[in-house]
Amino acid sequence: MSLVETAVPERFRDLAGRLTGRVVTPADPDWDTERLAWNLAIDQHPEAVIVPADASDIAVVVGFARDNGLRVVPQSTGHLAAPLGDLSGSILLHTSRLRGGEVDAEARTVRVGAGVVWGEVTSALEPYGLAALAGSSPDVGVAGYLLGAGFSWMARKRGLGCSAVTAFDVVTADGRQRHVSAESEPDLFWALRGGGGNTAIVTAFTFRVFPVATIYAGMLLFPLARAGEVLRAYEAWTRDVTEDATTSVRLLRIPPLPELPDFLRGQAFVGVDGAIDLPETEAAAVLEPLRALDPAIDTFGVLPASQLGLVHMDPPAPVPALGDGLIIDDLPDDAIEALLAVAGPDAESALLAVDLRHLGGAAGRPAENGGAVDHLPGKFVVYAVGIVADPALVPVLRAEVAAVRAALAPWMSERDYSNFREADAAPGRFWDDATLERLREIKQAYDPERTIRTAHELD
Fold first, then answer.
1. Domain ranges of the chain
2. Of these four, 91, 199, 330, 379, which has the most CB atoms within 10 Å of its CB?
């Protein structure tokens, strides 16, 4: 065993004596479990994993990191672990024990810890007839989603998730615990809403919720052979569809998993899914032009808002995946043909899905008193992903994801949606020059030694 290997555990054992939470190092038997991200294809090797019990623990960890020349990487679930890259010289700070929440039904706000996932939020809101601007998967963490802007199934009607945040509780790089809002620490409040969490470690979020007890939602599935027809019809439908509708279209190849029902197992579809936040009769009328295409499967109907996280059929448990995304400004026939050539019915694709989510509406307009990301540009945000069932698939999937991006490159927006970028990208892809300059100034003010590290950094 090298001197480095023996010194590191000793150093962290001293830290462990100062914490209520856990310190896990490579010397511990559960090291390989604790360092896992939700995306099991990402092999994280930090100097140590720390699971803090509370904000006071985090303050101690930040001071320890600063004194020892280490960086701190907050991680709730690890859905967006891929852009982090090499974690040498970094502490992985798992916020999973920062649990709990409070619903203020009268004020229509929720406060939750940074370790909470969206399924817990939506379930807690159901008795009150309220809904949050939640992620499309119930096991996505509140923290990463909101810090990266947050595009929900109600985004076109109600805006981005980060614009609904009213306060953060944080620990800054100097170890101070702060309550951050428009009235208290306004610069930090601005930076945390879409700035990716680069400027502070968030321990709790307070955000607005909405009086939505039920919603018209579901999916239409067609054989993948009809992809060209459905993509063209969907694009035409989105040109003037009401902002009450937030939907996506997907090219979907479902693996032959035994736990899936027969009608889905091993099948290939082009599908339209999402939600229309209108009364049932009005919502059905909005959907009718697509329903008239005669889908093979139609699940649209009135659902409890708490069930929105099930509509997209995202994996319910950690999986090994490889994906990446981009925003496109348009989807003309040439773009559809280019996409079909690399991921359509005649392509030998190993991708699980190519997802095009319709942007615009309230999510496409700058929010009043918004943050570092107050809207998303473009017409569609695209995300291509495959399941790494075997390590040999990594180069195959990487090439196929790159092919989707290349096919749509002529229509690429000047900005990306950071939650869907799983590759390292220049910060100018997420923030314009003026926003990036202000974010860097705030980072310098609150974290001059660059102690806090996130998936998409400012430099």
1. 3-94, 101-211+432-446, 214-420
2. 199
Quick one: pLDDT at residue 4?
38
Are both 3-94 and 101-211+432-446 of the same fold? yes
Architecture field, domain 3-94? 2-Layer Sandwich (3.30)
What topology is assigned to 214-420 in CATH?
A: Vanillyl-alcohol Oxidase; Chain A, domain 3 (3.40.462)
Read off the tokens for 412.
């690429």
3-class secondary-structure state, position 104: strand
Please tell me the least confidently modeled range out of 42-51, 84-93, 260-269, 292-301: 260-269
Q: Which CATH architecture has domain 101-211+432-446?
A: 2-Layer Sandwich (3.30)
Question: Taking all residues of the chain, what is their mean pLDDT, rounded to a whole number?
Answer: 96
For residue 320, which of 258, 387, 256 has the smallest C-alpha distance? Answer: 387
Indicate the pairing of strand 268-276 with strand 301-304: unpaired
For residues 98 and 204, the answer to whether their CB atoms sit within 8 Å is yes
Give percent of the chain with pLDDT exceeding 70.
Answer: 98
pTM of model > 0.90: yes
Residue found under tokens 């099991």? 40
Helices (runs of H) and strands (runs of E) counted in the chain: 12, 17
The pLDDT score that the predictor gives to residue 262 is: 85
Contact 49, 55 (CB under 8 A): no
Q: Pairing state of beta strands 71-75 and 90-94?
A: parallel
Interval 128-154 mean pLDDT: 97
CA distance to 262, 399, 427, per residue, from 436 (Å): 49, 31, 8
**Residue 177 CA to chain centroid, in angstroms?**
26
Give the residues across from 49 on adjacent strands. Answer: 24, 92
Q: Is a pLDDT exceeding 90 seen at residue 22? A: yes
